Amino acid sequence: MENQDKYNAFSLLQFIWKWRNWLLLVCVAAFVVSALCSFLVRPRFKSTALIYAPRTSSVSKILLNEQNYNERLEIKALATMDETEQMLPFLNAVAIKDSLIHKYDLATYYDIDLSKKGGQTKLYKTIANNMTIKRTEYGAISVSVSDWDPQRAYEMTLDVVRWLDTIKNAIEYERALAAYTILESQLDSIEREIESVNDSIQKLMSHGVFDVKLQSERLTQQYAIAVAQGNVAAMQRIQKEQDTIAKYGAKLTSYQDLEYNFSKYHSLCKQKMMDAKMDMTTIMPVKFIIDKPFPADKKYYPKKSIIVVVSTLCAFVLTLIVLLFIERIENQPDRKNKASIRQNQ
Prior knowledge:
single chain; alpha+beta; 4-stranded antiparallel sheet; disordered N terminus
């Protein structure tokens, strides 16, 4: 088997040497053509920004979280992998692409007729092909934009990173506004409930019942003294007051407990409402910029040397396969027999 492999390799070298002129001619032609084509390809430049997502962009959680301290909710805390993944759809949002289209008139710049069928889809696809957004192995997000103009690539990258704040803050504003509206409505409802309970408490107090426990203890002591003194009138008066407490005391206690719970809920709603208002009216950056983009001073595409080498190598291999195929056909037994017959005739 080893000898056969050596024989096959040697035969291949012999075959290449036999057709060396053709192979050399094709390789030189491929080299020249690919070199010329590489110079005709319009160079592209790329600008890249590296950003990290924060753990949270909620102002209320960052600034008003002293009672339940959590180091992950600090203003400098970086996001986890899951939160970084959640950031990617914001960067790929259509709103950012629309902003780029409007600012740089990309339809005209890329020579795309939006009036034709599929024009809008083609424009979005072109932008997507020129923009790369991906998560790095260390949990950061890389934002890259390529263009024929290095300054334009730099400005578009900067805009994508900048508009991330606008898009995400706009979405969070809508949620905070919805939460604020809900809490405001709930606060009005609980205030009406508290007012109704207070009215009921006032009516019960008009019967002379204020503090059931304290009044019961005091009347019990006075009743014992009246019994010891044999004061019947005092005993009857105290008994009447005790009957009043027995009649209204349970209701008063129930309403007072209800008023206490409503007050706690009112305070909680008020606090959450203020948190929502802070999130709604305050704009916070939603990313940490690690590496800022800059205008590239060197093209990233095309790589002329790679184009020339790959093209020349492909031309060599393809030509070699074609020559092998031609020689195999010529060396078939039928062709040899026919050739010998013709020579004998």
